[in-house]
Amino acid sequence: MQGHPRKKLNVNRASIVHQVRYAARHPERVVPYLRRTARDLWLRAKYRDHVSYYRAVMASDAGRNPEAAVGSQSHERWLALGLMQFDYLKQHGLAPEHRMLDIGCGNLRAGWRFIDYLEPGHYYGIDISPDILVSAKRTLVTYDLQAKLPYLTISGDLTFDFLPDGHFDVVHAHSVFSHSPIEVIDEALSHVGRVLAPGGFFDFTFDRTEGREHHVLHEDFYYRTETLVSLAERRGLKAQFMEDWERLPHGQSKIRVTTGG
């Protein structure tokens, strides 16, 4: 299999043994991790719900570097990851006339390409972070896409209660569930079927493990594929693991969900 080397799928990154070994191999990352740990403890004490907690994380990260806040350590990587998402969806069913809901749109790493490709008014991006949405608007101006009239909206949950029934042909969540506890994922799966148009689909990525499910701090969550597939099926959805995504240079995995209607 060609492409980006896959992460070790049986590693428990929350275990003390793994963290000690990792620190020994990467001593330069110890101090940044300790800073993250201190921030995690402070924010968990201050905010009891995950959305408020992670909104504060994004405010901290976006204040330093909006592109790094969405997981890109350089502008070149920001561009490459956005192009990868765009190309994959274009090759797997996204058409210009489709209406798209982009959950966790961030600063439009992929979103600006979707906006450019879709018909005017057909892109709807939501995010929990007002700070990253300010950066998203700057991206919109940078690529001169104002005439495409995208919607960029802050959201406090994933119930989609402010969106119409059966409206979106494509729903997309890249690197959202990798930062979400299971109850947040279940909330999204409980409600996404309502906003999907007939024949529509919902693609989401996640950090996959084949060992014990775990999380590192309250920022990074690792799930088994069967856990998320079963969760979708309990909500009356059909879920398919996207094997061909695994060949691309990205460390996460992808599942496609449909209503089956």
Automatic annotation (TrEMBL):
Assigned keywords, A-Z: Lipid metabolism, Methyltransferase, S-adenosyl-L-methionine, Transferase
Alphabetical list of Pfam families matching this protein: Methyltransf_12 (PF08242)
One BP term from GO: lipid metabolic process
Location of the Methyltransferase type domain: 101-202
Keyword Transferase recorded: yes
InterPro entries given in the database record: CFA/CMAS, Methyltransf_12, SAM-dependent_MTases_sf
GO molecular function ontology, one term from the record: methyltransferase activity
Top-level taxon of the source organism: Bacteria
Family note: Belongs to the CFA/CMAS family.
Cited PANTHER family: CYCLOPROPANE-FATTY-ACYL-PHOSPHOLIPID SYNTHASE
Name listed for the protein in its UniProt record: Class I SAM-dependent methyltransferase
Species assigned in the record: Streptomyces triticirhizae
